[in-house]
Specification:
Shape of chain B: globular
CATH architecture of chain B: Orthogonal Bundle
CATH class of chain A: Mainly Alpha
Largest sheet of chain B: 2 strands, antiparallel
Order of helices and strands of chain B: HHHHHHHHEEHHHHHHH
Number of domains of chain B: 1
Radius of gyration of chain B: 21 Å
Mean pLDDT of chain B: 82
Number of strands of chain B: 2
CATH topology of chain A: ABC transporter involved in vitamin B12 uptake, BtuC
Oligomer: heterodimer
Radius of gyration of chain A: 21 Å
Number of strands of chain A: 2
Number of domains of chain A: 1
Strand content of chain A: under 5%
Low-confidence stretches of chain A: none
Mean pLDDT of chain A: 84
Strand order of the largest sheet of chain A: 1-2
Distance between the termini of chain A: 44 Å
Largest sheet of chain A: 2 strands, antiparallel
Number of helices of chain A: 15
CATH topology of chain B: ABC transporter involved in vitamin B12 uptake, BtuC
Distance between the termini of chain B: 36 Å
Structural class of chain A: mainly alpha
Order of helices and strands of chain A: HHHHHHHEEHHHHHHHH
Helix content of chain B: over 70%
Largest interface: A-B, 59 and 57 residues
Strand content of chain B: under 5%
């Protein structure tokens, strides 16, 4: 009798362990990345060398930071997504280039200006969504249009300035580490990414800020009845998203060197789309999830994008494929369980 | 007792035509529309002449049809983020395959594809698979826009001359063709609105659980609302093809945000179940007239995108003000 119960318990424990491992979306996300890397090695020779993987990780950083902004937005609401990230990061690129103009001494001013600009645009988003009750995707899309208009009439198509040497060092250079006689080159941006990852996990899981965000995301009415100032929290989330996107624009300027209006607004890399896919692969939804999954998600989308580009797919088919990927993920992950 | 008293008071208020119009959700849009009409009549020379009406309606008709589609979907408690991409996909696809002989076959097949991809796919994803409407249609938007870009990376294709000349001609020498198409669309809507299913769409959008409890097949109604909307999107696609004369994947992009703004200005509530098509038509006319004003005020092209974006943003904020007086604990 006792033995039977013990064996049963053991079975249940084993089952729950497997279930926990194989149904955990974060682990699935990393397995997907691994699978994609193996597929890349099969299709393209020399994909799995250390330097190439580092290059992929360096490129993933930029989508990853947008995904960080998106993570905070998505966690704080069931239908919240930010589509203005591409426009806001273009503001960061152009403003940063204009203020820097190749001088290292201006880097502090550039950082402050870019963060303020991002904060302003993000706050406009947040005010519209939280206080006026406009649907998030519509509001952020409209603001993206307005930002594009502002960029057009401010620059009149003429782009001014360029990145400085320090920013370029951060944006595209490597940290050289000697390990057992091998020279390992690790991109600086990935070290920044690691710091941001730790910070965001700390904020989301170990502080009151994270608790409030998840509370607002899972049940907004309950959060309001408990005394959370829901509308202000939502506004600040969008402000944060704007700031992070603009900051990422500054780093992207360091990566490419000269400003270009199509960096964030073009269709070569559709940042809103990629970051939303990354966030959903990472298993993040209203009120739950952590940035660890979104990191895997952003590595996944960038790797998929680069493999498809190397295999000769054009912009359109890549966009269609990413749409199909998003659709499959949505069906697998975010189906609302309803009896109706 | 109380109930009787209340209904007694209500009965005393005369419910004439004007009262009905005043109480309708589309009343604010009607007022704004009349004001803009006056402004336009001052700015645009010969505003009420037949040829100017024709050129105006050539640009208004696609937007009005898309706004009708969007508001039907919004009333059913969902939203269609893929309207713009559907239009782009339609124009690219048809312009790619068209030659002088197979015009109507290509149009018919393109129409069918839109009904399948926009109507049926979105409907099944949202109604049957219970995905969130916004993000589900966002992904179908990416698929269709990607396909459009794949078919036609740069603008091109071939549209026969007689076909796009037809759009700018008159029927019986006094009815402009765009207005005629609009009337056809309106008749289709009128027939649909007389059916029971149309009432069910309101019921599902307004109070889903209640609709389910009273025996309405909620899932099917959701699919149906997307299917009805896709018919109007198909007609709008034909108009857009005749208007632009080429296939380009950027063609339909502005229609998404404009159609949502039109629906919201016209008093359609994003929470579903509220508003009507008349309001959406006025909303679309308002946006068209505003764009006209931007054009005739001779705003430099650098400022035009900004001005249009600001108009949308203002419209969205204005449309949401009445909601602020509603329930307190809702966002």
């Amino acid at each position: 009798m006792n033995e039977n119960v013990k064996i049963n318990n053991f079975n249940i424990k084993i089952k729950s362990f497997f279930r926990r491992v194989f149904l955990d979306k974060v682990i699935i996300a990393y397995l997907l990345v691994l699978l994609l890397f193996v597929a890349g090695e099969i299709f393209l020779k020399g994909f799995l060398t250390f330097s190439h993987v580092m290059a992929v990780l360096q490129a993933s950083f930029f989508v990853g930071i947008i995904a960080l902004a998106q993570t905070f937005v998505v966690i704080s609401g069931k239908e919240d997504f930010d589509l203005s990230v591409g426009a806001t990061l273009t503001v960061g690129v152009l403003l940063g280039a204009a203020i820097l103009n190749g001088k290292n001494t201006n880097i502090f001013y550039a950082l402050i200006a870019v963060l303020i600009a991002g904060f302003i645009f993000g706050t406009i988003n947040g005010l519209g969504i939280a206080y006026l009750g406009i649907s998030p995707l519509i509001m952020t899309l409209a603001l993206a249009m307005v930002i594009e208009g502002i960029l057009l009439f401010v620059t009149k198509g003429f782009l001014y300035g360029k990145a400085s040497s320090v920013l370029e060092l951060i944006g595209k250079d490597f940290l050289n580490i000697k390990l057992f006689g091998h020279l390992l080159k690790i991109p600086w941006v990935n070290i920044i990414w690691l710091v941001l990852l730790l910070l965001s996990v700390l904020i989301l899981n170990r502080t009151r800020v994270g608790l409030v965000l998840r509370g607002v995301g899972s049940n907004i009415r309950a959060a309001e009845l408990l005394g959370v100032r829901v509308k202000m929290v939502k506004t600040l989330v969008y402000s944060f998203s704007g700031m992070v996107s603009a900051f990422m624009g500054l780093l992207l300027l360091g990566y490419v060197g000269t400003p270009n209006i199509s960096l964030g607004l073009g269709h070569k890399i559709n940042y809103p789309m990629l970051s939303i896919i990354a966030v959903i692969i990472g298993g993040i939804g209203g009120g739950h999830g952590s940035y660890v999954g979104a990191v895997a998600g952003s590595i996944f989308v960038v790797t998929l994008n680069s493999i498809l580009t190397t295999l000769g797919f054009d912009d359109g088919s890549r966009m269609a494929i990413s749409g199909v990927v998003l659709l499959i993920l949505l069906i697998a992950y975010t189906r609302r369980s309803k009896n109706i | 007792m109380n109930f009787n008293k209340k209904s007694g008071i209500n009965n005393k208020i005369s419910k004439g035509l004007f009262y009905k119009i005043y109480k309708d959700t589309s009343f604010p849009s009607l007022v704004i529309f009349i004001l803009l009409l006056i402004a336009n009549a001052i700015l645009q020379p010969n505003f009420f002449s037949l040829s100017v009406i024709k050129t105006n309606f050539m640009t208004f008709t696609p937007l009005i049809l898309v706004a009708i589609a969007q508001s039907i979907v919004i009333i059913s408690g969902s939203i269609d983020f893929s309207v713009g991409a559907s239009l782009s996909f339609f124009t690219c696809m048809t312009a790619y395959f068209m030659n002088d002989k197979n015009v109507f076959l290509v149009i018919f097949l393109g129409f069918l594809t839109i009904v399948l991809l926009n109507g049926l796919l979105n409907g099944i994803l949202i109604g049957r698979l219970n995905l969130q409407p916004l993000i589900a249609t966002y992904s179908t938007q990416a698929i269709m826009l990607g396909l459009a870009m794949f078919i036609m990376p740069v603008a091109g294709g071939y549209v026969p001359k007689f076909f796009y000349k037809f759009y700018s001609s008159f029927l019986f020498k006094f009815i402009p063709v765009p207005v005629m198409i609009l009337i056809v669309g309106f008749v289709i809507w009128y027939i649909i609105s007389r059916t029971v299913a149309y009432k069910y769409i309101y019921a599902v959008g307004g109070f889903e659980d209640g609709a389910f409890a009273s025996g309405i097949k909620v899932k099917n109604i959701r699919v149906l609302s997307h299917l009805i909307a896709s018919i109007f999107i198909g007609i709008a696609g034909i108009c857009l093809l005749m208007l632009s004369g080429t296939g380009e994947w950027r063609n339909g992009t502005p229609y998404l945000i404009n159609s949502v703004a039109a629906a919201l200005i016209g008093g359609v509530s994003l929470r579903g179940g509220k508003g009507n098509i008349i309001g959406a038509i006025f909303g679309a006319l308002i946006i068209g007239l505003l764009n006209n004003i931007i054009f005739f005020a001779k705003v430099s092209s650098y400022y035009q995108i900004f001005a249009k974006g600001m108009i949308i943003l203002l419209a969205l904020s204005l449309a949401s003000i009445p909601k602020l007086y509603e329930a307190k604990y809702k966002i």
